[in-house]
Structures are given as C-alpha cells and as structure tokens.
Design goal:
This protein has 118 residues and is an alpha+beta fold. The protein has 2 helices and 5 strands; from the N terminus they run ββαββαβ. Strands 1-2-3-4-5 form a 5-stranded mixed sheet.
Amino acid sequence: MGYTILTQKTTLLNVSSHFLPLFQESRDSDTVNKIRIKDSEIYLIALIEHQSENDFDMSFRILRYIVFICTDYVAQQEKLHKGITKSKAFLYPPILPIVYYEGTSTWSAPLNFKNRVF
C-alpha cells in the first residue's frame, strides 16, 4: 500500500482493505481513502450505491464508518504517543463521507442519522 502523489504536498492512500473486515459484510464498492495535505490527514469515504431504491439506513452506515475510522485513528495515535488521546489537545481527523446514488427515483432517505431516531 503506497501513497499516490497528487501534488508536492498532497498524497492519497486507499485504506479500504484495512476497514472492510470491521464491517462484517461485503462492501466491494465502498472506499476509504486517507488524504495527507502537508502534515494533516483527512479521510474521504465514498459509498457508491448501485441500487434503484433509497437506503433508509444509509445515515447509520455512514455513522458506523466514522466510528470505525475514529476508533482506528485513536489506536494508531496511542501506539505512537501513549496517552495522547486523553489530552485536551488531541483532535480527530476530519472525515468527509460521500454517497453517490444512481437510483431512478429522487433520494428521500434521511441525510442525518438523528432523523432516524425517535
């Protein structure tokens, strides 16, 4: 697994294979990419859905992705700097989820998981 150089200060690394075992289901079309810009990392999640109907659980699927990525990030940072995640200065990386929908009807599923909780 190597970084793809986008510019002199920006690189892209596909880390999907690292996360797929965590989801307990096949997600062949989903990708998780880590983008390094200078000294910062951003995670880009692409959920490519080839379906003709809305997925009303999509917001929770995205939430699960975010939680898995943040949990993994904490583990990585703790290996590098023991106790860092308990400090006030510790910050999580930004995560930008993207859903591409190819259905024939208009997407009507909630865009936010809070709209799926009574």
